[in-house]
Design goal:
heterodimer, A: 494 residues, mainly alpha, two-stranded antiparallel sheet, 75% helix, 1% strand, globular, disordered C terminus, B: mainly alpha, flat
Amino acid sequence: MDGGLLGGFLGALSFTNLMYCFIGCVLGTFVGVLPGLGPAATSAILLPLTSYMPPAGAIIMLAGIYYGAMYGGSTTSILVNVPGEASSVPTCLDGFQMTKQGRAGEALAIAAIGSFIAGTFGTIALSFMAPALAGIALKFGPPEYFALVLFSLTALVGFSEGSLLKGLIAGGIGMFLACVGLDPLSGKQRLTFGSVTFTGGMDVIPVLMGLFGVAEVLTSAGEGVLHLYKGTLGRMIPRGRELVKGIYASIQGTISGFVLGLLPGMIPAVTAFLAYDIERRISKTPQKFGTGCIEGVAAPEAANNSTSQAGFIPLMALGIPTSPTLAVILAALMMYGLQPGPFLFAHHGDFAWAVIASMYIGNVILLILNLPLVGLWARLCLVPYRFIGPVVLGVCLVGAFSVRNRLFDVIACVGFGVLGYMMKRRRWPTTPLILGIILGPMLEQSLRQSLELSGGTPVILLTRPISVTLIILTAVLLVFIRRVLYKPEFREGT
Amino acid sequence: MESFLVIAVGILGITDAWRLSSVVRAGGTFHDVVGPDRYLGAISVGLLFCGIWTLVKNLKSVRHPPLRKEEAEGNQVTLVVLVVFVLVLYTFAIPTLGYLLATSFFIPGHLLHFRSSTLVKEHPRRVADSSRVLYHFCVLC
Protein backbone atom coordinates (compact mmCIF):
# COMPACT_ATOMS: atom_id res chain seq x y z
CA MET A 1 0.00 0.00 0.00
CA ASP A 2 2.83 2.44 0.95
CA GLY A 3 4.40 2.13 -2.46
CA GLY A 4 1.01 2.81 -4.06
CA LEU A 5 0.38 5.95 -2.02
CA LEU A 6 3.94 7.22 -2.50
CA GLY A 7 3.53 6.65 -6.22
CA GLY A 8 0.25 8.49 -5.94
CA PHE A 9 2.00 11.49 -4.40
CA LEU A 10 4.49 11.48 -7.26
CA GLY A 11 1.58 11.66 -9.67
CA ALA A 12 -0.42 14.19 -7.65
CA LEU A 13 2.57 16.51 -7.23
CA SER A 14 3.08 16.83 -10.99
CA PHE A 15 2.47 20.39 -12.17
CA THR A 16 -0.61 19.43 -14.21
CA ASN A 17 -2.34 17.54 -11.43
CA LEU A 18 -1.42 20.18 -8.85
CA MET A 19 -2.98 22.78 -11.10
CA TYR A 20 -6.18 20.73 -11.51
CA CYS A 21 -6.31 20.17 -7.74
CA PHE A 22 -5.95 23.90 -7.13
CA ILE A 23 -8.63 24.73 -9.73
CA GLY A 24 -10.97 22.16 -8.18
CA CYS A 25 -10.42 23.56 -4.67
CA VAL A 26 -10.96 27.16 -5.81
CA LEU A 27 -14.07 26.24 -7.81
CA GLY A 28 -15.36 24.14 -4.92
CA THR A 29 -14.93 26.99 -2.44
CA PHE A 30 -16.54 29.36 -4.94
CA VAL A 31 -19.64 27.20 -5.41
CA GLY A 32 -19.74 26.44 -1.71
CA VAL A 33 -19.87 30.16 -0.94
CA LEU A 34 -22.51 30.90 -3.57
CA PRO A 35 -25.98 29.89 -2.47
CA GLY A 36 -27.90 28.22 -5.27
CA LEU A 37 -24.98 26.54 -7.02
CA GLY A 38 -23.79 23.30 -5.51
CA PRO A 39 -20.98 20.83 -6.16
CA ALA A 40 -23.34 18.42 -7.94
CA ALA A 41 -24.52 21.11 -10.38
CA THR A 42 -20.99 22.38 -10.96
CA SER A 43 -19.57 18.90 -11.51
CA ALA A 44 -22.42 18.10 -13.91
CA ILE A 45 -21.83 21.34 -15.82
CA LEU A 46 -18.09 20.71 -16.11
CA LEU A 47 -18.47 17.03 -16.98
CA PRO A 48 -18.38 17.45 -20.78
CA LEU A 49 -15.35 19.73 -20.48
CA THR A 50 -13.46 17.10 -18.53
CA SER A 51 -13.47 14.85 -21.59
CA TYR A 52 -10.68 17.08 -22.94
CA MET A 53 -8.62 16.59 -19.78
CA PRO A 54 -6.47 13.65 -18.70
CA PRO A 55 -8.50 11.23 -16.52
CA ALA A 56 -6.51 11.75 -13.32
CA GLY A 57 -6.67 15.52 -13.66
CA ALA A 58 -10.40 15.47 -14.34
CA ILE A 59 -11.25 13.32 -11.32
CA ILE A 60 -8.84 15.26 -9.11
CA MET A 61 -10.60 18.47 -10.13
CA LEU A 62 -14.12 17.07 -9.64
CA ALA A 63 -13.15 15.63 -6.25
CA GLY A 64 -11.66 19.02 -5.30
CA ILE A 65 -14.95 20.70 -6.20
CA TYR A 66 -16.85 18.24 -3.98
CA TYR A 67 -14.85 18.53 -0.77
CA GLY A 68 -13.96 22.18 -1.47
CA ALA A 69 -17.65 23.08 -1.45
CA MET A 70 -17.87 21.72 2.09
CA TYR A 71 -15.20 24.23 3.16
CA GLY A 72 -16.80 27.14 1.33
CA GLY A 73 -20.38 26.55 2.47
CA SER A 74 -19.62 27.70 6.02
CA THR A 75 -18.56 31.23 4.98
CA THR A 76 -21.99 32.55 4.07
CA SER A 77 -23.63 30.52 6.83
CA ILE A 78 -21.51 32.32 9.40
CA LEU A 79 -21.35 35.81 7.89
CA VAL A 80 -24.72 36.19 6.20
CA ASN A 81 -26.90 33.53 7.87
CA VAL A 82 -27.54 32.00 4.44
CA PRO A 83 -26.10 28.52 3.92
CA GLY A 84 -23.96 28.20 0.82
CA GLU A 85 -24.69 24.48 0.79
CA ALA A 86 -27.40 22.32 2.33
CA SER A 87 -24.66 20.75 4.47
CA SER A 88 -23.96 24.14 6.05
CA VAL A 89 -27.48 24.76 7.31
CA PRO A 90 -26.72 23.66 10.90
CA THR A 91 -23.69 25.98 10.87
CA CYS A 92 -26.06 28.95 10.57
CA LEU A 93 -27.64 28.14 13.92
CA ASP A 94 -24.57 29.00 16.00
CA GLY A 95 -22.25 30.51 13.41
CA PHE A 96 -24.31 33.60 12.73
CA GLN A 97 -24.89 34.09 16.46
CA MET A 98 -21.12 34.11 16.93
CA THR A 99 -20.88 36.74 14.19
CA LYS A 100 -23.41 38.94 15.96
CA GLN A 101 -21.29 38.63 19.11
CA GLY A 102 -18.23 39.88 17.19
CA ARG A 103 -16.68 36.39 17.05
CA ALA A 104 -17.02 35.76 13.31
CA GLY A 105 -13.29 35.18 12.97
CA GLU A 106 -13.32 32.39 15.56
CA ALA A 107 -16.32 30.76 13.89
CA LEU A 108 -14.69 30.85 10.45
CA ALA A 109 -11.41 29.57 11.83
CA ILE A 110 -12.92 26.64 13.73
CA ALA A 111 -15.00 25.74 10.67
CA ALA A 112 -11.82 25.64 8.55
CA ILE A 113 -9.81 23.78 11.21
CA GLY A 114 -12.61 21.27 11.80
CA SER A 115 -12.96 20.74 8.05
CA PHE A 116 -9.21 20.18 7.76
CA ILE A 117 -9.12 17.64 10.61
CA ALA A 118 -12.09 15.79 9.12
CA GLY A 119 -10.79 15.94 5.56
CA THR A 120 -7.37 14.62 6.54
CA PHE A 121 -8.82 11.83 8.71
CA GLY A 122 -11.21 10.88 5.90
CA THR A 123 -8.40 10.73 3.36
CA ILE A 124 -6.23 8.56 5.64
CA ALA A 125 -9.16 6.19 6.19
CA LEU A 126 -9.81 6.17 2.42
CA SER A 127 -6.16 5.20 1.79
CA PHE A 128 -6.56 2.11 3.97
CA MET A 129 -10.18 1.11 3.52
CA ALA A 130 -10.71 1.53 -0.21
CA PRO A 131 -8.09 -1.02 -1.34
CA ALA A 132 -9.20 -3.41 1.42
CA LEU A 133 -12.84 -3.17 0.38
CA ALA A 134 -11.85 -3.51 -3.26
CA GLY A 135 -10.12 -6.77 -2.34
CA ILE A 136 -13.33 -8.06 -0.76
CA ALA A 137 -15.28 -6.94 -3.82
CA LEU A 138 -13.25 -9.38 -5.94
CA LYS A 139 -15.48 -12.06 -4.45
CA PHE A 140 -18.58 -10.23 -5.67
CA GLY A 141 -20.61 -11.86 -8.41
CA PRO A 142 -23.93 -10.83 -9.96
CA PRO A 143 -25.99 -11.88 -6.87
CA GLU A 144 -23.78 -9.80 -4.59
CA TYR A 145 -23.96 -6.78 -6.89
CA PHE A 146 -27.74 -7.10 -7.08
CA ALA A 147 -28.04 -7.20 -3.28
CA LEU A 148 -25.60 -4.29 -2.91
CA VAL A 149 -27.41 -2.09 -5.42
CA LEU A 150 -30.75 -2.99 -3.82
CA PHE A 151 -29.37 -1.98 -0.41
CA SER A 152 -27.97 1.26 -1.85
CA LEU A 153 -31.20 2.22 -3.59
CA THR A 154 -33.21 1.44 -0.44
CA ALA A 155 -30.91 3.61 1.64
CA LEU A 156 -30.94 6.43 -0.90
CA VAL A 157 -34.72 6.41 -1.09
CA GLY A 158 -35.15 6.11 2.65
CA PHE A 159 -32.75 8.88 3.61
CA SER A 160 -33.87 11.33 0.94
CA GLU A 161 -35.90 14.38 1.86
CA GLY A 162 -39.65 14.29 1.73
CA SER A 163 -41.89 11.27 2.23
CA LEU A 164 -40.85 7.68 1.63
CA LEU A 165 -43.53 7.35 -1.04
CA LYS A 166 -42.16 10.32 -3.00
CA GLY A 167 -38.68 8.86 -2.77
CA LEU A 168 -39.95 5.50 -4.04
CA ILE A 169 -41.77 7.12 -6.94
CA ALA A 170 -38.73 9.27 -7.85
CA GLY A 171 -36.47 6.22 -7.75
CA GLY A 172 -38.98 4.21 -9.78
CA ILE A 173 -39.18 6.92 -12.41
CA GLY A 174 -35.38 7.00 -12.58
CA MET A 175 -35.28 3.25 -13.18
CA PHE A 176 -38.12 3.61 -15.72
CA LEU A 177 -36.20 6.26 -17.65
CA ALA A 178 -33.11 4.06 -17.61
CA CYS A 179 -35.13 1.46 -19.58
CA VAL A 180 -35.57 3.79 -22.55
CA GLY A 181 -33.56 2.57 -25.52
CA LEU A 182 -32.02 -0.80 -26.30
CA ASP A 183 -32.02 -3.56 -23.73
CA PRO A 184 -28.31 -4.28 -23.11
CA LEU A 185 -28.73 -8.04 -22.88
CA SER A 186 -31.22 -8.86 -25.61
CA GLY A 187 -30.97 -5.79 -27.85
CA LYS A 188 -34.75 -5.28 -27.88
CA GLN A 189 -36.15 -1.78 -28.05
CA ARG A 190 -37.96 -0.52 -24.95
CA LEU A 191 -40.07 2.61 -24.62
CA THR A 192 -38.89 3.88 -28.00
CA PHE A 193 -42.36 3.81 -29.65
CA GLY A 194 -40.75 3.29 -33.02
CA SER A 195 -38.67 6.46 -32.78
CA VAL A 196 -35.03 6.31 -33.81
CA THR A 197 -34.29 9.24 -31.49
CA PHE A 198 -35.18 7.26 -28.41
CA THR A 199 -33.20 4.20 -29.50
CA GLY A 200 -30.04 5.73 -28.11
CA GLY A 201 -31.66 6.04 -24.70
CA MET A 202 -31.16 8.76 -22.14
CA ASP A 203 -27.56 9.79 -21.68
CA VAL A 204 -26.88 10.47 -18.03
CA ILE A 205 -24.92 13.70 -18.63
CA PRO A 206 -27.75 15.84 -20.10
CA VAL A 207 -30.04 14.47 -17.39
CA LEU A 208 -27.58 15.49 -14.66
CA MET A 209 -27.05 18.91 -16.21
CA GLY A 210 -30.77 19.47 -16.48
CA LEU A 211 -31.69 18.25 -13.02
CA PHE A 212 -28.86 20.05 -11.28
CA GLY A 213 -27.71 22.89 -13.51
CA VAL A 214 -30.83 24.16 -15.25
CA ALA A 215 -33.15 23.40 -12.34
CA GLU A 216 -30.83 25.21 -9.95
CA VAL A 217 -30.82 28.32 -12.15
CA LEU A 218 -34.60 28.28 -12.46
CA THR A 219 -34.88 27.94 -8.67
CA SER A 220 -32.38 30.71 -7.94
CA ALA A 221 -33.58 33.13 -10.61
CA GLY A 222 -35.90 35.03 -8.32
CA GLU A 223 -33.56 35.40 -5.38
CA GLY A 224 -32.44 38.85 -4.33
CA VAL A 225 -29.01 40.21 -3.53
CA LEU A 226 -27.60 39.25 -0.16
CA HIS A 227 -26.39 41.76 2.35
CA LEU A 228 -23.04 41.14 3.93
CA TYR A 229 -22.52 41.62 7.66
CA LYS A 230 -20.26 44.66 7.99
CA GLY A 231 -19.13 44.24 11.59
CA THR A 232 -15.66 43.18 12.70
CA LEU A 233 -14.46 39.62 12.42
CA GLY A 234 -12.84 39.77 15.84
CA ARG A 235 -10.08 37.36 16.82
CA MET A 236 -9.17 35.05 13.93
CA ILE A 237 -8.27 31.95 15.97
CA PRO A 238 -10.13 30.72 19.04
CA ARG A 239 -8.00 30.27 22.14
CA GLY A 240 -7.89 28.28 25.34
CA ARG A 241 -11.06 26.40 26.30
CA GLU A 242 -12.89 27.53 23.17
CA LEU A 243 -10.24 25.98 20.94
CA VAL A 244 -10.25 22.73 22.94
CA LYS A 245 -14.05 22.52 22.82
CA GLY A 246 -13.98 23.21 19.10
CA ILE A 247 -11.41 20.51 18.41
CA TYR A 248 -13.25 17.92 20.50
CA ALA A 249 -16.46 18.71 18.64
CA SER A 250 -14.57 18.44 15.33
CA ILE A 251 -13.36 14.97 16.30
CA GLN A 252 -16.90 13.88 17.18
CA GLY A 253 -18.22 15.30 13.94
CA THR A 254 -15.42 13.61 12.00
CA ILE A 255 -16.16 10.16 13.42
CA SER A 256 -19.95 10.36 13.13
CA GLY A 257 -19.77 11.93 9.66
CA PHE A 258 -17.31 9.32 8.44
CA VAL A 259 -19.16 6.26 9.73
CA LEU A 260 -22.51 7.47 8.42
CA GLY A 261 -20.95 8.68 5.17
CA LEU A 262 -20.09 5.11 4.19
CA LEU A 263 -23.80 4.40 3.79
CA PRO A 264 -25.55 5.25 0.54
CA GLY A 265 -28.00 8.07 0.99
CA MET A 266 -26.08 9.66 3.84
CA ILE A 267 -25.18 12.87 2.12
CA PRO A 268 -23.26 15.64 3.90
CA ALA A 269 -26.48 17.60 4.45
CA VAL A 270 -27.90 14.76 6.56
CA THR A 271 -24.79 13.89 8.55
CA ALA A 272 -24.13 17.55 9.37
CA PHE A 273 -27.52 17.75 11.08
CA LEU A 274 -26.97 14.46 12.86
CA ALA A 275 -23.55 15.55 14.11
CA TYR A 276 -25.03 18.83 15.40
CA ASP A 277 -27.76 16.87 17.20
CA ILE A 278 -25.28 14.37 18.68
CA GLU A 279 -23.02 17.19 19.89
CA ARG A 280 -25.96 18.93 21.52
CA ARG A 281 -27.06 15.75 23.26
CA ILE A 282 -23.62 14.91 24.66
CA SER A 283 -22.83 18.50 25.64
CA LYS A 284 -22.87 19.53 29.32
CA THR A 285 -24.55 22.78 28.27
CA PRO A 286 -27.08 21.85 25.59
CA GLN A 287 -29.10 24.98 26.33
CA LYS A 288 -26.26 27.08 24.88
CA PHE A 289 -26.64 25.58 21.41
CA GLY A 290 -28.20 28.11 19.10
CA THR A 291 -26.79 31.06 21.04
CA GLY A 292 -23.24 31.10 19.62
CA CYS A 293 -21.72 27.83 20.78
CA ILE A 294 -18.43 26.98 19.07
CA GLU A 295 -19.22 23.25 19.14
CA GLY A 296 -22.33 23.98 17.07
CA VAL A 297 -20.08 25.21 14.27
CA ALA A 298 -17.24 22.70 14.57
CA ALA A 299 -19.28 19.47 14.67
CA PRO A 300 -21.42 19.90 11.53
CA GLU A 301 -18.55 21.35 9.51
CA ALA A 302 -16.31 18.43 10.40
CA ALA A 303 -19.11 15.94 9.70
CA ASN A 304 -19.88 17.25 6.22
CA ASN A 305 -16.21 17.06 5.24
CA SER A 306 -15.60 13.57 6.57
CA THR A 307 -18.81 12.38 4.87
CA SER A 308 -17.63 13.75 1.55
CA GLN A 309 -14.35 11.82 1.90
CA ALA A 310 -16.03 8.66 3.17
CA GLY A 311 -18.24 8.58 0.10
CA PHE A 312 -15.21 7.90 -2.08
CA ILE A 313 -14.70 4.51 -0.40
CA PRO A 314 -17.81 2.75 -1.77
CA LEU A 315 -17.41 4.68 -5.02
CA MET A 316 -13.86 3.58 -5.75
CA ALA A 317 -14.08 0.10 -4.21
CA LEU A 318 -17.57 -0.96 -5.30
CA GLY A 319 -18.69 1.55 -7.88
CA ILE A 320 -21.63 2.66 -5.72
CA PRO A 321 -22.15 6.43 -5.42
CA THR A 322 -23.57 7.60 -2.10
CA SER A 323 -24.52 11.12 -3.17
CA PRO A 324 -25.47 13.00 -6.34
CA THR A 325 -22.01 14.56 -6.72
CA LEU A 326 -20.39 11.16 -6.48
CA ALA A 327 -22.87 9.95 -9.10
CA VAL A 328 -21.46 12.64 -11.41
CA ILE A 329 -17.91 11.50 -10.61
CA LEU A 330 -18.98 7.92 -11.37
CA ALA A 331 -20.31 9.12 -14.72
CA ALA A 332 -16.92 10.76 -15.34
CA LEU A 333 -15.08 7.55 -14.48
CA MET A 334 -17.29 5.57 -16.84
CA MET A 335 -16.74 8.17 -19.55
CA TYR A 336 -13.02 7.42 -19.33
CA GLY A 337 -13.63 3.68 -19.36
CA LEU A 338 -12.41 3.39 -15.76
CA GLN A 339 -14.84 1.00 -14.13
CA PRO A 340 -14.72 1.66 -10.38
CA GLY A 341 -14.64 -1.44 -8.26
CA PRO A 342 -12.13 -4.13 -7.44
CA PHE A 343 -10.20 -3.76 -10.68
CA LEU A 344 -9.65 -0.04 -10.33
CA PHE A 345 -6.77 -0.51 -7.89
CA ALA A 346 -5.50 -3.61 -9.66
CA HIS A 347 -5.44 -2.27 -13.24
CA HIS A 348 -5.36 1.51 -12.73
CA GLY A 349 -3.49 1.81 -9.45
CA ASP A 350 -1.50 4.88 -10.54
CA PHE A 351 -4.71 6.74 -11.28
CA ALA A 352 -6.48 5.69 -8.05
CA TRP A 353 -3.55 6.54 -5.79
CA ALA A 354 -2.95 9.86 -7.54
CA VAL A 355 -6.57 10.84 -6.81
CA ILE A 356 -6.25 9.79 -3.16
CA ALA A 357 -2.91 11.58 -2.75
CA SER A 358 -4.38 14.73 -4.29
CA MET A 359 -6.96 14.81 -1.49
CA TYR A 360 -4.19 15.23 1.10
CA ILE A 361 -2.82 18.12 -0.93
CA GLY A 362 -6.30 19.52 -1.57
CA ASN A 363 -7.10 19.72 2.13
CA VAL A 364 -3.95 21.76 2.75
CA ILE A 365 -4.78 24.05 -0.17
CA LEU A 366 -8.29 24.57 1.17
CA LEU A 367 -7.06 25.42 4.65
CA ILE A 368 -4.75 28.04 3.14
CA LEU A 369 -7.48 29.38 0.84
CA ASN A 370 -10.19 29.59 3.45
CA LEU A 371 -8.50 31.19 6.42
CA PRO A 372 -6.72 34.28 5.08
CA LEU A 373 -9.00 34.86 2.08
CA VAL A 374 -12.32 34.60 3.90
CA GLY A 375 -13.16 38.28 3.25
CA LEU A 376 -12.78 37.79 -0.49
CA TRP A 377 -15.00 34.70 -0.52
CA ALA A 378 -17.65 36.46 1.53
CA ARG A 379 -17.85 39.25 -1.05
CA LEU A 380 -18.45 36.75 -3.84
CA CYS A 381 -21.88 35.98 -2.47
CA LEU A 382 -22.88 39.55 -3.32
CA VAL A 383 -22.57 38.88 -7.08
CA PRO A 384 -26.11 39.20 -8.46
CA TYR A 385 -27.47 36.00 -9.87
CA ARG A 386 -28.39 37.73 -13.14
CA PHE A 387 -24.74 37.46 -14.17
CA ILE A 388 -24.20 33.89 -13.10
CA GLY A 389 -27.51 32.39 -14.23
CA PRO A 390 -27.26 32.97 -18.01
CA VAL A 391 -23.67 31.76 -18.14
CA VAL A 392 -24.58 28.56 -16.28
CA LEU A 393 -27.56 27.99 -18.59
CA GLY A 394 -25.44 28.51 -21.68
CA VAL A 395 -22.75 26.13 -20.45
CA CYS A 396 -25.38 23.51 -19.57
CA LEU A 397 -26.97 23.55 -23.00
CA VAL A 398 -23.69 23.52 -24.89
CA GLY A 399 -22.40 20.79 -22.62
CA ALA A 400 -25.51 18.70 -23.19
CA PHE A 401 -25.11 19.03 -26.97
CA SER A 402 -21.41 18.18 -26.91
CA VAL A 403 -22.01 14.69 -25.47
CA ARG A 404 -23.44 13.05 -28.62
CA ASN A 405 -23.91 16.07 -30.90
CA ARG A 406 -27.66 15.51 -30.78
CA LEU A 407 -30.35 18.12 -30.31
CA PHE A 408 -32.35 15.50 -28.42
CA ASP A 409 -29.87 15.75 -25.56
CA VAL A 410 -30.37 19.52 -25.38
CA ILE A 411 -34.13 19.05 -25.31
CA ALA A 412 -33.68 16.38 -22.63
CA CYS A 413 -31.51 18.80 -20.62
CA VAL A 414 -34.19 21.52 -20.78
CA GLY A 415 -36.95 19.02 -20.06
CA PHE A 416 -35.16 17.60 -17.03
CA GLY A 417 -34.38 21.13 -15.91
CA VAL A 418 -38.07 21.95 -15.83
CA LEU A 419 -38.80 18.61 -14.16
CA GLY A 420 -36.13 19.24 -11.54
CA TYR A 421 -37.50 22.73 -10.88
CA MET A 422 -41.03 21.40 -10.46
CA MET A 423 -39.77 18.65 -8.17
CA LYS A 424 -37.97 21.19 -5.96
CA ARG A 425 -41.04 23.41 -5.75
CA ARG A 426 -43.27 20.45 -4.86
CA ARG A 427 -40.65 19.11 -2.41
CA TRP A 428 -39.93 15.91 -4.30
CA PRO A 429 -36.43 14.47 -3.86
CA THR A 430 -34.27 14.41 -7.00
CA THR A 431 -31.47 12.19 -5.64
CA PRO A 432 -33.47 8.92 -5.97
CA LEU A 433 -34.31 9.84 -9.57
CA ILE A 434 -30.66 10.38 -10.50
CA LEU A 435 -29.51 7.25 -8.78
CA GLY A 436 -32.36 5.26 -10.25
CA ILE A 437 -31.11 6.23 -13.71
CA ILE A 438 -27.51 5.35 -12.86
CA LEU A 439 -28.01 2.25 -10.71
CA GLY A 440 -31.14 0.89 -12.42
CA PRO A 441 -29.25 -0.74 -15.32
CA MET A 442 -26.77 -2.25 -12.85
CA LEU A 443 -29.64 -3.69 -10.81
CA GLU A 444 -31.35 -5.15 -13.86
CA GLN A 445 -28.21 -6.62 -15.35
CA SER A 446 -27.07 -8.24 -12.10
CA LEU A 447 -30.54 -9.67 -11.42
CA ARG A 448 -30.84 -11.18 -14.88
CA GLN A 449 -27.31 -12.57 -14.76
CA SER A 450 -27.97 -14.07 -11.31
CA LEU A 451 -31.12 -15.80 -12.54
CA GLU A 452 -29.25 -16.99 -15.61
CA LEU A 453 -26.61 -18.55 -13.33
CA SER A 454 -29.19 -20.25 -11.15
CA GLY A 455 -31.35 -21.49 -13.99
CA GLY A 456 -34.19 -19.11 -13.24
CA THR A 457 -34.59 -19.56 -9.48
CA PRO A 458 -34.04 -16.59 -7.14
CA VAL A 459 -32.74 -18.88 -4.38
CA ILE A 460 -29.21 -18.01 -5.50
CA LEU A 461 -29.68 -14.60 -3.85
CA LEU A 462 -30.28 -16.27 -0.50
CA THR A 463 -27.65 -18.99 -0.65
CA ARG A 464 -24.56 -16.84 -1.09
CA PRO A 465 -23.34 -15.38 2.24
CA ILE A 466 -22.52 -11.82 1.13
CA SER A 467 -25.71 -11.56 -0.89
CA VAL A 468 -27.96 -12.85 1.91
CA THR A 469 -26.22 -10.55 4.44
CA LEU A 470 -26.90 -7.53 2.27
CA ILE A 471 -30.52 -8.57 1.73
CA ILE A 472 -31.01 -8.96 5.49
CA LEU A 473 -29.41 -5.53 6.00
CA THR A 474 -31.83 -4.12 3.42
CA ALA A 475 -34.77 -5.57 5.34
CA VAL A 476 -33.43 -4.17 8.63
CA LEU A 477 -32.90 -0.81 6.98
CA LEU A 478 -36.49 -0.80 5.68
CA VAL A 479 -37.80 -1.46 9.17
CA PHE A 480 -35.52 1.26 10.60
CA ILE A 481 -36.63 3.75 7.97
CA ARG A 482 -40.30 3.04 8.49
CA ARG A 483 -40.26 2.85 12.27
CA VAL A 484 -37.67 5.44 13.25
CA LEU A 485 -36.99 7.93 10.47
CA TYR A 486 -40.61 8.54 9.63
CA LYS A 487 -41.77 9.10 13.18
CA PRO A 488 -42.98 12.71 13.56
CA GLU A 489 -40.81 13.41 16.64
CA PHE A 490 -37.66 12.33 14.77
CA ARG A 491 -38.42 14.47 11.75
CA GLU A 492 -39.13 17.46 14.01
CA GLY A 493 -35.77 16.95 15.70
CA THR A 494 -33.90 17.05 12.40
CA MET B 1 -51.66 16.13 -10.44
CA GLU B 2 -48.43 14.24 -9.76
CA SER B 3 -50.47 11.12 -9.00
CA PHE B 4 -52.07 11.20 -12.43
CA LEU B 5 -48.68 11.68 -14.07
CA VAL B 6 -47.22 8.72 -12.21
CA ILE B 7 -50.26 6.58 -13.06
CA ALA B 8 -49.91 7.58 -16.71
CA VAL B 9 -46.22 6.64 -16.69
CA GLY B 10 -47.11 3.31 -15.10
CA ILE B 11 -49.74 2.57 -17.73
CA LEU B 12 -47.33 3.54 -20.50
CA GLY B 13 -44.72 1.17 -19.13
CA ILE B 14 -47.18 -1.69 -18.74
CA THR B 15 -48.38 -1.20 -22.33
CA ASP B 16 -44.85 -1.34 -23.69
CA ALA B 17 -43.96 -4.29 -21.48
CA TRP B 18 -47.00 -6.14 -22.88
CA ARG B 19 -45.95 -5.34 -26.44
CA LEU B 20 -42.40 -6.44 -25.71
CA SER B 21 -43.58 -9.64 -24.10
CA SER B 22 -45.60 -10.62 -27.16
CA VAL B 23 -42.61 -9.87 -29.41
CA VAL B 24 -39.88 -11.46 -27.32
CA ARG B 25 -41.63 -14.56 -26.02
CA ALA B 26 -43.65 -15.43 -29.10
CA GLY B 27 -41.25 -18.02 -30.49
CA GLY B 28 -40.80 -19.85 -27.17
CA THR B 29 -37.02 -19.69 -27.54
CA PHE B 30 -36.42 -16.80 -25.17
CA HIS B 31 -35.24 -18.25 -21.87
CA ASP B 32 -34.49 -15.16 -19.79
CA VAL B 33 -36.79 -15.46 -16.77
CA VAL B 34 -36.93 -11.71 -16.15
CA GLY B 35 -36.22 -10.40 -19.62
CA PRO B 36 -36.56 -6.81 -20.78
CA ASP B 37 -40.36 -7.08 -20.65
CA ARG B 38 -40.92 -8.32 -17.11
CA TYR B 39 -38.38 -5.97 -15.57
CA LEU B 40 -40.06 -2.98 -17.23
CA GLY B 41 -43.46 -4.40 -16.31
CA ALA B 42 -42.47 -4.76 -12.64
CA ILE B 43 -41.26 -1.16 -12.40
CA SER B 44 -44.38 0.09 -14.20
CA VAL B 45 -46.71 -1.87 -11.92
CA GLY B 46 -44.86 -0.46 -8.93
CA LEU B 47 -45.24 3.08 -10.26
CA LEU B 48 -48.93 2.50 -11.00
CA PHE B 49 -49.47 1.22 -7.49
CA CYS B 50 -47.60 4.16 -5.94
CA GLY B 51 -49.51 6.60 -8.13
CA ILE B 52 -52.86 5.17 -7.06
CA TRP B 53 -51.74 5.15 -3.42
CA THR B 54 -50.72 8.82 -3.66
CA LEU B 55 -54.02 9.69 -5.31
CA VAL B 56 -56.03 7.92 -2.62
CA LYS B 57 -53.96 9.60 0.13
CA ASN B 58 -54.53 13.03 -1.41
CA LEU B 59 -58.26 12.42 -1.76
CA LYS B 60 -58.53 11.31 1.84
CA SER B 61 -56.60 14.25 3.32
CA VAL B 62 -58.51 17.29 4.56
CA ARG B 63 -58.38 20.04 1.94
CA HIS B 64 -57.58 23.54 3.09
CA PRO B 65 -58.29 26.49 0.85
CA PRO B 66 -55.14 27.47 -1.02
CA LEU B 67 -53.13 30.23 0.66
CA ARG B 68 -52.91 33.52 -1.14
CA LYS B 69 -49.65 33.42 -3.04
CA GLU B 70 -47.04 36.04 -2.29
CA GLU B 71 -46.45 38.41 -5.16
CA ALA B 72 -42.78 37.40 -5.21
CA GLU B 73 -43.75 33.77 -5.80
CA GLY B 74 -46.02 34.78 -8.65
CA ASN B 75 -43.17 36.78 -10.12
CA GLN B 76 -40.85 33.80 -9.88
CA VAL B 77 -43.29 31.55 -11.74
CA THR B 78 -43.56 34.14 -14.52
CA LEU B 79 -39.78 34.46 -14.61
CA VAL B 80 -39.42 30.71 -14.91
CA VAL B 81 -41.93 30.55 -17.77
CA LEU B 82 -40.01 33.24 -19.61
CA VAL B 83 -36.67 31.53 -19.00
CA VAL B 84 -38.00 28.19 -20.24
CA PHE B 85 -39.47 29.90 -23.33
CA VAL B 86 -36.10 31.46 -24.14
CA LEU B 87 -34.34 28.13 -23.59
CA VAL B 88 -36.71 26.36 -26.00
CA LEU B 89 -36.23 29.13 -28.56
CA TYR B 90 -32.45 28.79 -28.22
CA THR B 91 -32.65 25.02 -28.60
CA PHE B 92 -34.50 25.30 -31.89
CA ALA B 93 -32.46 28.27 -33.05
CA ILE B 94 -29.18 26.33 -32.99
CA PRO B 95 -29.88 24.14 -36.05
CA THR B 96 -31.57 27.03 -37.90
CA LEU B 97 -29.23 29.95 -37.21
CA GLY B 98 -26.13 28.00 -36.31
CA TYR B 99 -24.41 27.80 -32.94
CA LEU B 100 -22.47 31.10 -33.09
CA LEU B 101 -25.39 33.27 -34.12
CA ALA B 102 -27.86 31.64 -31.77
CA THR B 103 -25.51 31.96 -28.79
CA SER B 104 -24.66 35.58 -29.71
CA PHE B 105 -28.34 36.41 -29.28
CA PHE B 106 -28.91 34.08 -26.35
CA ILE B 107 -26.37 35.25 -23.79
CA PRO B 108 -26.92 39.05 -24.09
CA GLY B 109 -30.65 38.47 -24.46
CA HIS B 110 -30.69 36.46 -21.26
CA LEU B 111 -28.64 39.06 -19.43
CA LEU B 112 -31.18 41.69 -20.43
CA HIS B 113 -34.05 39.40 -19.41
CA PHE B 114 -32.66 38.87 -15.92
CA ARG B 115 -32.05 42.61 -15.60
CA SER B 116 -35.65 43.23 -16.47
CA SER B 117 -36.74 41.07 -13.55
CA THR B 118 -37.29 44.39 -11.75
CA LEU B 119 -39.89 45.06 -14.44
CA VAL B 120 -41.52 41.76 -13.47
CA LYS B 121 -41.59 42.71 -9.82
CA GLU B 122 -43.02 46.18 -10.48
CA HIS B 123 -45.55 45.22 -13.14
CA PRO B 124 -46.38 41.57 -12.52
CA ARG B 125 -49.80 41.67 -14.12
CA ARG B 126 -48.50 43.22 -17.33
CA VAL B 127 -45.75 40.65 -17.61
CA ALA B 128 -48.13 37.81 -16.75
CA ASP B 129 -50.51 38.95 -19.49
CA SER B 130 -47.61 39.10 -21.96
CA SER B 131 -46.55 35.60 -20.95
CA ARG B 132 -50.07 34.34 -21.54
CA VAL B 133 -50.13 35.94 -24.99
CA LEU B 134 -46.75 34.39 -25.78
CA TYR B 135 -48.01 30.99 -24.64
CA HIS B 136 -51.11 31.14 -26.83
CA PHE B 137 -48.98 32.31 -29.75
CA CYS B 138 -46.73 29.27 -29.32
CA VAL B 139 -49.76 26.97 -29.17
CA LEU B 140 -51.08 28.50 -32.40
CA CYS B 141 -47.69 28.05 -34.07
